């Protein structure tokens, strides 16, 4: 049944009771009982009448009852209906706006540092976990170097033609030596000049097949390991996450579910899907529960909005994730405002 059909089947009394249940749940996180609703309704009706309406709403799939006598909670379908058809989105809170303006008002040429501050500010404002997907760096590469840190840890240093430097830690194949790392670095530098990271990856895949015999097997393995890292198959260095403690400390937090969420974040092999979610529609998108295909955590909600460069091309995204009882009316406008502000600031920069 479509949302339009569901809404059309709700009379004024059912609609008000449903809205009160959702708003009370979002505020308190607790099931809502008929007696509580009876005192809050604009129309004077008995608790028995309210119970009957709530049973009808449950039959329609809009409410759930965790226990027989514990009141009702909105289902994920009910939250979706409320968010899309009944929620009133507030204007951006002036204090929230001022805080974000100050965060992005600092003249910092380091995009990574600036977006890290944005993520921290967004987490502080919303009291949730914030996510920021940084733009890919598209400048040509000037130099690549592998540095051994420990038997199970290595560093790749990427120096770009525009002066940007990225340091990324990864797990090298077993048996790597300083000599094999130097050889792998020399191999990459010989073909990297003038190429972006994406272009180098494509070129290197072809060259590796042709010239693999020129490298010893350990160096070749290191090259492939570096490729996997740059292609974001493990922890994506473009994804900034802040505010984990906000979820872990939440009174309503299901700790096991929260741990699953962050395990997903740490091991996600295709984090670009985060950006693809944002690209599927204009402006802010809201994913509730099982709709949130990025994570296996079914009890979460994600509010996400893309930001664009000067050419109006989507290059990244900002978002807030938390339990389904997020304050959507407040979080949606600040996520939208932050995405637009980030786009304007980054578009005004060179490179």
UniProtKB/TrEMBL annotation:
Keywords: Repressor, Stress response, Transcription, Transcription regulation. InterPro entries: GAF-like_dom_sf, HrcA, HrcA_C, WH-like_DNA-bd_sf, WH_DNA-bd_sf, WHTH_transcript_rep_HrcA_IDD. It comes from the Bacteria. Pfam families: HrcA (PF01628). Negative regulator of class I heat shock genes (grpE-dnaK-dnaJ and groELS operons). Prevents heat-shock induction of these operons. Belongs to the HrcA family. This is Heat-inducible transcription repressor HrcA. It comes from Paracoccus methylarcula. The lineage of its organism: Bacteria, Pseudomonadati, Pseudomonadota, Alphaproteobacteria, Rhodobacterales.
């Amino acid at each position: 049944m479509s949302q339009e059909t569901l809404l059309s089947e709700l009379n004024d009394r059912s609609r008000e009771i449903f809205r009160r249940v959702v708003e009370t749940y979002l505020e308190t996180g607790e099931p809502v009982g008929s007696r509580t609703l009876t005192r809050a309704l604009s129309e004077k009706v008995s608790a028995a009448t309210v119970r009957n309406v709530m049973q009808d709403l449950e039959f329609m799939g809009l409410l759930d009852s965790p226990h027989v006598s514990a009141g009702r909670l909105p289902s994920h379908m009910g939250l979706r209906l409320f968010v899309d058809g009944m929620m009133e989105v507030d204007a951006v809170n002036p204090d929230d706006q001022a805080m974000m303006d100050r965060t992005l008002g600092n003249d910092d040429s380091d995009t990574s540092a600036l977006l890290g501050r944005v993520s921290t500010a967004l987490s502080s404002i919303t009291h949730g976990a914030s996510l920021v997907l940084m733009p890919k760096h598209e400048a040509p590469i000037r130099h690549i170097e592998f540095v051994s840190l420990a038997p199970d840890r290595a560093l790749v240093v990427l120096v770009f033609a525009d002066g940007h430097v990225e340091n990324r830690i990864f797990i090298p194949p077993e048996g790597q030596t300083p000599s094999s790392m130097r050889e792998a670095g020399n191999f990459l530098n010989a073909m990297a000049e003038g190429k972006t990271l994406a272009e180098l990856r494509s070129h290197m895949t072809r060259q590796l097949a042709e010239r693999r015999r020129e490298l010893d097997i350990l160096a070749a393995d290191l090259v492939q390991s570096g490729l996997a890292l740059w292609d974001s198959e493990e922890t994506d260095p473009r994804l900034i996450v802040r505010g984990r403690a906000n979820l872990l400390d939440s009174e309503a937090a299901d700790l096991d579910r929260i741990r699953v969420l962050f395990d997903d974040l740490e091991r996600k092999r295709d984090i670009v899907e985060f950006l693809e979610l944002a690209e599927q529609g204009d402006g802010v998108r809201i994913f509730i529960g099982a709709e949130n295909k990025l994570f296996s955590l079914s009890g979460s909600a994600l509010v996400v909005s893309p930001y664009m460069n000067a050419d109006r091309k989507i290059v990244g995204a900002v978002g807030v994730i938390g339990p389904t009882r997020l304050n959507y009316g407040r979080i949606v406008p600040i996520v939208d405002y932050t995405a637009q502000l980030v786009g304007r600031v980054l578009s005004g920069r060179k490179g």
